[in-house]
Design brief:
heterodimer; A: 16 helices; 0% strand; globular; disordered N terminus; B: 313 residues; mainly alpha; MetI-like fold; 2 domains; two-stranded antiparallel ribbon; 3% strand; UgpAE/MalFG_permease (chain B); transmembrane helix (chain B)
């Protein structure tokens, strides 16, 4: 299982984890000698199976040929390893369109996430550090928008884009993903603490302009919060299905989610396409690897980011 | 909003003219920083809302083009059994799935916070990892797991000489969907709640421990009330998510087209209206009503929580 291997590795090789050890941070309280329970641990490990077995199945199934899927037990390997053949199938089916989908997913997700994080950081910093006419009103509007169901907005956005001739272009997926009201809220909360007012004051005394202060002093201190927003924007764009499904017509522009869903529909629908099962499963397995790795390596950021977002609300 | 208390205390002004010039400079800088976000916010959030409101008041006719029909689309929606049954189905989904999911998330978060488990980190990551799997991929994977062809449930049942539950049948489908959504989001909500628990001052718990309160008592009467805002946040996000359900049913629809009709969820219905029936005016009205339903429900949740909190004081 990817998860367990990745978390166990540093222990095995003796490489220290990049995250600071938790005991020093907060575990200095009464549970220094926690009454750990073997029974509860066993119950939790069994519970863990619910979360990890489906992924285990995905890993196992991607090593099987289409015939083996039907003849061997799902949760264990069959005699022959077809992983390599499956991977080749994934990247050659329909002239290698999967590679295009992978590239599109990366381009859409990275562009949107970097853009969204940067916009949210600028706005969040301004709301936290400046008092200005209309500021409260605008911020209330943004805060209220967190509640707006984005999917309900997608169809009207499509109709607008269709009028502007923007549908079936990468912009149709990227532009709406740049707006993250929750990101602004998160960065505002974060900036209020992370950037000390006296630092801004000192920079002003030195004669720096406000924007220069933001780019030289503020931005550097805001990086951890920004990475959190970036990570969540990355996930939501990488996972997005409804928006690209509506906006895009040509398979060459699809992200992975839309492309794989199309293959799945094809396999479910037609008798001749049955051979696609192992290809789809392997394609699905490959598609989740980047995010799982991102989450494992950036633990510090998503955990602290979620904390600041939820606590002070 | 919370602007006032986040600002540094009013600085005593030494020079009267200085601060006002500073204020103007600050104000200009703030607007420069928020303008990029605000422009996109208006373009891709506010304008689509207004536009869909506008569209929903018209009807496309074969003869005469677009005609203003007032609230006709709305009265049509409110008497449309397809739309109403979809909303009712999502309300049922919400009433069962959200409490189960958040209840489990809360229990896991409390267990992790109490430090009663061995292998804490493995448990935490293992439960969270499904969040990194796109919902389309999760639905696709679970669809195969549920399936009668090579799903492990069917294989196991076959070995035992019985048959697996018909997960993809009309009676089971809603629960099968609930399971997929819970699998994806229990970990995410757990991390939000866990992060909130970690930031509660430890002295509070120590005092309780000194008073002889057990772990369960402390959890119930101190920890849970302390993280009420975070719990509320997860409830509201879950409410918004449930009503917008689209990805999972649209993927499972490929496997069970007779069970999941085009009107299974309101979003699926709106999508079909807009892209199959080409009735974008009516689809806009549906999207608009759905948005209003979601806002009303989430504000009701928020208000009732606030009232309860006030009553508890």
């Amino acid at each position: 299982m990817t998860t367990i291997r990745a978390t166990a590795e540093p222990v095995l090789t003796g490489i220290p984890r990049e995250t600071p050890p938790p005991p020093r941070r907060r575990r200095t309280h009464s549970s220094d000698q926690p009454r750990r329970s073997k029974l509860l641990t066993i119950i939790m490990i069994v519970t863990l199976l619910y979360f990890l077995l489906p992924l285990w199945w995905l890993v196992v199934a991607s090593t099987k040929s289409n015939a083996d899927l039907f003849t061997s037990f799902g949760l264990w390997f069959s005699g022959t390893n077809s992983l390599w053949a499956n991977i080749q199938d994934v990247f050659t089916t329909q002239d290698g369109v999967y590679l295009l989908w992978l590239r599109n997913s990366l381009v859409y997700a990275i562009t949107s996430a970097v853009g969204a994080a940067f916009l949210a950081t600028m706005a969040g910093y301004a709301f936290a550090k400046y008092r200005f006419r209309g500021g409260n009103l605008v911020f209330s509007g943004i805060l209220g928008a967190i509640m707006i169901p984005t999917t309900a907005l997608t169809i009207p956005t499509y109709l607008l884009f269709a009028n502007a001739g923007l549908t079936n272009t990468p912009w149709a997926v990227i532009l709406p993903s740049l707006v993250s009201p929750f990101g602004v809220y998160l960065m505002r909360v974060y900036a209020a603490d992370a950037v000390d007012d006296t630092l801004i004051e000192a920079a002003r005394v030195d004669g720096a302009g406000e924007l220069r202060i933001f780019f030289t002093v503020g931005l550097r201190l805001l990086v951890p919060g920004m990475v959190t927003v970036l990570l969540f924007a990355l996930v939501s764009t990488w996972n997005n299905y409804f928006l690209p499904l509506i906006m895009l017509n040509s398979p060459d522009l699809y992200p992975l989610t839309v492309g794989l869903a199309q293959w799945q529909a094809l396999a479910a629908g037609g008798s001749g396409s049955r051979a696609l099962f192992s290809t789809i499963i392997t394609g699905a397995f490959i598609s989740i690897i980047p995010l799982v790795i991102a989450f494992l390596f950036l633990q510090r950021y998503w955990q602290s980011g979620l904390a600041s977002g939820s606590v002070k609300g | 909003m919370t602007t006032a208390d986040l600002r540094a205390p009013e600085k005593p002004t030494v020079l009267r003219r200085g601060p006002s010039r500073l204020r103007r400079r600050e104000s200009a800088a703030a607007w420069v920083l928020i303008t990029p976000f605000v422009v996109l916010f208006l373009l891709f959030l506010v304008v689509p809302i207004v536009y869909s409101g506008y569209l929903s008041l018209f009807r496309e006719q074969l003869v005469g083009g677009n005609t203003f029909v007032g609230l006709e689309n709305y009265t049509r929606a409110l008497t449309d059994p397809s739309f109403l049954s979809g909303v009712a189905r999502m309300a049922l989904f919400l009433l069962i799935q959200v409490p189960v999911m958040l209840g489990l998330s809360l229990v896991f978060a409390l267990l992790l916070d109490a430090g009663v488990l061995y292998l804490q980190k493995v448990v935490r990551l293992g439960i969270f990892i499904p969040y990194a799997v796109p919902s389309v991929i999760a639905a696709l994977m679970w669809g195969y797991l549920y399936g009668p062809d090579f799903g492990p449930f069917a294989q196991l049942a076959d070995k035992l000489g019985t048959s697996a539950p018909p997960f993809l049948s009309a009676d089971w489908m809603l629960f099968s969907l609930m399971n997929i959504v819970s699998w994806e989001f229990i970990g995410y909500n757990m991390i939000i709640l866990y992060a909130a628990l970690r930031s509660v001052p430890r002295e509070l718990f120590d005092a309780a421990a000194v008073d002889g309160a057990g772990t369960v008592r402390t959890a119930w009467s101190i920890k849970i009330p302390a993280i009420r805002p975070a719990i509320l946040l997860t409830v509201i996000f879950s409410v918004i998510g449930s009503f917008q359900l689209f990805n999972e049913p649209s993927i499972l629809r490929n496997l069970a087209p007779n069970v999941i009709g085009i009107d299974y969820t309101p979003n699926l219905y709106a999508y079909n209206l807009a892209f199959i029936n080409r009735d974008s005016n009516y689809a806009a009205a549906i999207a608009f009503i759905l948005g209003i339903v979601i806002m009303v429900v989430s504000y009701t949740v928020q208000l009732s929580a606030q009232r309860k909190e006030r009553a508890a004081r």
